[in-house]
Write a structure and sequence with these properties.
With 444 residues, the chain is mainly β. Helix content is 6%, strand content 52%. The protein is built from two helices and 20 strands. The chain has helices at residues 3-20, 412-419; strands spanning 30-45, 59-75, 78-89, 99-108, 113-120, 142-151, 154-162, 184-193, 199-212, 223-236, 241-255, 262-279, 282-291, 312-313, 346-356, 361-371, 382-396, 399-410, 425-435, 438-443. The chain has an 18-stranded antiparallel β-barrel.
Length: 444
């Protein structure tokens, strides 16, 4: 059995000892059952390669539907949560089966210790490193054991993950094609809220074991390579002002999925954001993100700009972060790859104005200036400019409609790095209708 798994199970057993000292003898049991219906549509024009014999052109439109059945049980010291999910594109006839999005149980002791196990939609701090990325419809969840303590302004969580494709008694399986790309994961997160100041701070350390090589291969045998992310987040929030800042470093080994080349990782990111809200009716945000990128390498082949073959990998990856929350709703930069695996990093300077016209209608407008963080030969760093408009109307407590529009004005740099040929100006409109009725609630 894997040594790290044994140590994780031993830690769980030691941690569970204080929990076993408290037994449920009386109290209220509560059961809630609800549904979540989300209908999502998108219309895009531009920003894609121009139509050829091998390409679909520069227009796209589709509708998607997501249905979730939520079941929650709670009593003193015990919680259980399950979410059954179906997601499909309208008109798709193939293989859209139900799946378990979340399914976990949580035991809590009176002294603040807890143990939680199952499939969990994790969310930490401002979700730059770990978040559900719910706008992606399918969203992210992790199969983990989570142990922790919360009390007196302190929060300490330890996460342990170990992924397989199938159960085998005598050997581990080569993990590929699963819901998460790591074979093993260990994470420690600590947060402290200062009692006399509107100040909170967090520290995060994540270690991931990633599979490389080929299963059953003698020449390229399977191995597990490890990479780490570590850093911190600060939130200062006096009466009308909120200032957030974060800094993370990435180290370990990077494995190229196509060439299987291994590189040392030396990458980092930093962000700062200030939000001023002098009234409940309106507010403003101003922020800047910097994610490091790889060095430019010229390759003399057709379209071979910036082939990323480095002994040191400098492109920071936000891995499980909620990317559309920070880098724009179109998520141009980390959802799809740059040509030839080049990772030039990202600079994102933005300003947002938001307001509530009525108690039911919220509006926001955001401008993004976008650039790479790598010094490019014969090209400027600027990728483009983006304007995003969004409106949310809440019909009732369980029915809401979100509508958004984005216009991206790209540059030659964007054209070369992302598409090679195409319309530099992209238009993208979308809507999400969310209906979440509560079906059944009971206590006994």
């Amino acid at each position: 059995m894997n040594g790290k798994l044994i140590r994780g199970l031993m830690a769980a057993a030691l941690f569970a000892a204080p929990l076993s000292g408290w037994a449920q003898t009386s109290g209220t049991n509560q059961l809630n059952v609800g549904l979540n219906f989300m209908t999502h549509g998108e219309v895009m024009r531009g920003g894609l390669p121009r139509g050829t014999d091998d390409e679909v052109g520069d227009k796209s439109s589709f509708l998607m539907g997501r249905v979730r059945l939520n079941v929650d049980y709670k009593r003193q010291g015990l919680e259980a949560h399950a979410v059954i999910q179906n997601k499909s594109v309208w008109g798709n006839s193939g293989g859209q089966a139900l799946n378990l999005y979340e399914g976990w149980v949580k035991m809590t002791a009176k002294n603040g210790l807890f143990a939680q196990v199952g499939r969990i939609a994790l969310s930490y701090d401002d979700e730059r490193i770990i978040g559900p990325n719910d706008f992606a419809m399918a969203a992210l969840a992790h199969d983990v054991l989570r142990l922790g303590y919360e009390g007196h302004g302190h929060k300490l969580h330890a996460l342990f993950g170990y992924n397989q494709n199938a159960s085998h008694v005598y050997r581990d399986t080569y993990y590929v094609g699963g819901s998460q790309f790591y074979k093993t994961m260990q994470t420690v997160w600590y947060h402290y809220d200062v009692p006399i100041l509107p100040l909170g701070a967090s520290l995060l350390f994540m270690n991931m074991g990633l599979q490389s090589g080929e299963q059953g291969s003698v020449y390229n045998p399977p191995t597990t390579e490890f990479q780490q992310i570590y850093g911190g987040y600060v939130n200062f929030h006096p009466k009308y002002l909120t200032v957030e800042g974060s800094y993370y470093r990435q180290s370990g080994k990077h494995v190229d999925s196509s060439t299987m080349q291994k590189s040392e990782i030396k990458a980092w990111m930093a962000s700062v954001k200030a939000t001023l809200q002098p009234s409940e009716r309106y507010g403003f945000s101003l922020g800047y993100d910097y994610l490091s990128g790889d060095d430019y390498v010229a390759v003399v082949v057709p379209g071979g700009f910036g082939m990323a073959r480095h002994e040191v990998w400098k492109g920071f990856s936000p891995i499980y972060g909620s990317r559309t929350k920070h880098f724009g709703m179109m998520d141009y930069f980390y959802e799809s790859a740059y040509i030839n695996g080049f990772t030039p990093g990202l600079q994102n300077a933005y300003v947002t104005a938001f307001g509530n016209l009525t108690s039911k209608l919220n509006l926001s407008a955001t401008y993004h200036y976008l650039a790479v963080s790598t010094d490019l030969k014969d090209l400027k760093r600027t990728l483009g400019h983006s304007i995003e408009l969004q409106a949310t109307y809440r019909f009732s407590k369980d029915i809401s409609l979100k509508v958004g529009y984005t216009q991206m004005q790209g540059t030659e740099t964007m054209d070369r790095l992302k598409r090679e040929t195409g319309d530099k100006k992209a238009h993208w409109g979308w809507f999400s209708l969310d209906i979440s009725p509560s079906l059944f609630t009971t206590k006994w």
